Amino acid sequence: MPIDLVALSTCTRCDLSLTRQRVVIGSGPASPALLVLGEAPGRSEDEGGEPFIGRSGQLLFRLLGEVGITRAECFVTNVVKCRPPNNRTPSAHELETCRPWLRAQLDDVRPRVVLALGNTAARSVFGYQQGIGLTHGRVTQLDSGPGLATYHPAAALRGGAAVLELMRADLQIVKSLVELP
Ligand code: URA
Ligand code: SF4
Known about the structure:
Bound molecules: uracil, iron/sulfur cluster
Helix content: 40-55%
Strand order of the largest sheet: 2-1-3-5-4
Largest sheet: 5 strands, mixed
Strand content: 5-15%
Distance between the termini: 26 Å
């Protein structure tokens, strides 16, 4: 069933609705090669209404471009659709309350491959207990198909070359999964 975009864009199920400017739903083609999943909108996204339009997004799509994947081929969204105040990590309650929206999107969009960025997204969608340092690059089967996690691009902006190289290796795996017949 198609997701109710009016209900999502006016959702008040959790308290993030009190401080957000807008619900950042996400966008992309139907049946995309890749669903890119971040944590939550930041300031630029809360203002602009689209996910990953700030500095993290610039880096992310530069790295995906290096393996030949364009933003136009991706459905881009976040596990939590509204910006947490001061970009704090979403609470367990917020993650739980927003989860049905993501589940509906995954059912609706049917991506070939899911790429989760950072600990919050990786734990949320793959159920990993361990941190991203141990779980990145591990291919895990979801109902929608295969997926994997890598570092959040914000971690690469802080962590420099070492994190970038790990992300590049993970994105090579993404590329090979996307190209599977
Ligand atoms: N960081 C995220 O996790 N998501 C965005 O949309 C932007 C920055
Ligand atoms: Fe609704 Fe999710 Fe926004 Fe909370 S974060 S108000 S559950 S859309």
